[in-house]
């Protein structure tokens, strides 16, 4: 993935990855990335790693649309109940069940703020026990 603003690769290797992140062949194409976009995507990937158990998978794929580039980060982790999906983007929000996992609840808040400031948005699709897909939409051009 290329960082267009600085013309250098973004390193997506969360600390606890253990080789579980798989990039689709389309994820190797250019993504319209501005300063801080890499941080936003890293925060989503880092959460996928933290909440996907050993043996699970994390997939990253990219689709180029007419006005947006869509980046899907899909994991086979614990999932998020529909009633809590609106809360996960609040600053310092942490679910009761994950207080033993490293973090302070700021990553998804920052990711949403960064992507929004760039004219994009994030959508989450998830079900408890079935993993999650975070779709990041970034404007082209």
Tally of individual helices: 2
Percentage beta strand: 25-35%
List the strand order in the largest sheet: 3-4-5-7-6
Query: How much helicity do the residues have?
Result: 10-25%
Taking pLDDT < 50 over at least 5 consecutive residues as the criterion, the unreliable ranges are 1-15, 25-30
Determine the mean pLDDT.
76
Major sheet details:
5 strands, mixed
SSE-based structural type: alpha+beta
Count every beta strand, where a strand is a DSSP E run of 2 or more residues.
Answer: 7
What sequence of helices (H) and strands (E) makes up the elements? EEEHEEHEE
Gap between N and C termini: 16 Å
- Rg over CA atoms: 14 Å
State the shape: globular
Explain this structure.
The protein is α+β, with helices and mostly antiparallel strands. It has helices at residues 37-50, 107-117; strands at residues 2-3, 8-9, 21-23, 58-64, 68-75, 121-126, 132-139. It has a 5-stranded mixed β-sheet with strand order 3-4-5-7-6, with helices on one face. The protein is globular. Mean pLDDT is 76; it is low at 1-15 and 25-30.
């Amino acid at each position: 993935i290329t960082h267009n603003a600085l013309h250098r690769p973004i390193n997506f290797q969360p600390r606890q990855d253990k080789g579980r992140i798989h990039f689709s062949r389309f994820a190797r194409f250019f993504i319209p990335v501005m300063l801080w976009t890499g941080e936003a995507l890293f925060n989503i990937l880092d959460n996928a790693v933290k909440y996907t158990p050993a043996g699970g998978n994390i997939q990253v794929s990219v689709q180029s649309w007419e006005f947006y580039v869509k980046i899907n980060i899909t994991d086979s982790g614990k999932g998020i109940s529909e009633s809590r999906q609106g809360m996960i983007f609040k600053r310092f929000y942490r679910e009761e069940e994950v207080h033993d996992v490293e973090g302070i609840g700021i990553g998804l808040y920052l990711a949403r703020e960064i992507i929004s400031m760039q004219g994009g948005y994030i959508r989450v699709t998830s079900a408890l026990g079935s993993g999650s897909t975070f779709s990041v939409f970034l404007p082209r051009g």
